[in-house]
Amino acid sequence: MPALWMILASLLFACMGVCVKLGADRFGIAELTFYRGLAGVLFMALFMRSRGTAFRTRHWRLQVTRAVAGSIALGCYFFAISLLPLAAAVTLNYTSPIFVALLLALWFREPLRRLAIGAVVLGFVGVVVLLRPTIAPEQWLGAVAGLASGLIASLAYINVRELGRAGEPESRTVFYFSCITCLGATPFVAGAGGFTPPDATGAALVIGIGVFGTAAQLAMTRAYRVGATIVAANLAYSTVVFASLFGMLIWGEVLPAPAWAGIGMIMASGILVTRARTPLPDTPRRD
Fold first, then answer.
1. Is the dihedral of CA 224, 76, 160, 67 positive or negative?
2. pTM of the model
3. Nearest-angstrom CA–CA distance, 96 and 266
4. Is 286 left (phi over 0), alpha (psi -120 to 50) or beta?
5. N or C: which end of the chain has fewer CB within 10 A?
């Protein structure tokens, strides 16, 4: 059952990506980010009230740092989805475990085992192999944004680890992330000329972004809580599979063989990094 929770979370994250890619034709990236944050605020507030979880935190510095990093990573991820094939954007975002391993070694002086070093090298080789045959000249900004989302998300995940060690409940962390995402996107939306009034289809897409994203986080949290962390972390890469299927079915995206080889290298790298070190506790991916 824990494995099914993680697979469900991966499917829901892929569905969120589909809504983002479709919504990018109707809304700005800041608007999509705002709606994602707003849905999280509303849903998590109700969830916390039902569980009796307090909103006040003693670790507001960690919460703010995690939320700011997560919000920037989310905006970069949405931008990458708008420009790249869905499978490529998702895969670049999933480089975050590679960056986590590097940051923990450089920042926290945690030793890297040989397996982890090899996995990091494999991951960056995979990035090069993925991008060279896949990305057109006009898509390189999206590729940079995708890698940036993985790098910046790794900072958020490290803060999630510290919050978990401090005893902060995951729901409170997600709530503060959603609040700051919503607030942070608002000035960009206002500066771009205001909100775009959604029609019926647009409303369905922004609701889908919020519902799928929040439900995926809860399903993933459940998977990490009741199952083996390493199994859940490895199954998270099934998001790439679902995203690939959606990309082919909806947009006819067919990646060349070298691109699939690069995707495979990045997935293998993430799995090996997870196995080579103590995994982070709940790392709420694709906030």
1. negative
2. 0.88
3. 10
4. left
5. N
Residues sharing a CB contact under 8 Å with residue 254, sequence separation 6 or more, in sequence order: 248
How deeply is 89 buried, as exposed, middle or buried, from its count of CB atoms within 10 A (0-12, 13-18, 19+)?
A: buried
Convert the pLDDT of each residue in 127-145 to its tens digit. 888 887 677 888 899 999 9
Per-residue pLDDT tens digits for 242-283: 999 999 999 998 888 888 898 999 888 888 887 776 544 444
Of the CA atoms within 13 Å of residue 137, those in its CB half-sphere come to: 0
Output the CA torsion sign for 177, 280, 8, 84. positive
DSSP code of residue 283: -
Tens digits of residue pLDDT in 5-47: 888 989 999 999 999 999 999 999 999 999 999 988 998 999 9
| Backbone angle region of 280, left / alpha / beta, with phi > 0 → left and psi within -120 to 50 → alpha | beta
Q: Extract the runs of DSSP E, i.e. beta strands, from 172-242.
A: none
Specify the residue for token string 């809304």: 27
| Amino acid (one-letter) located at 285 | R
Task: Map tokens 């109700």 to a residue.
Answer: 46
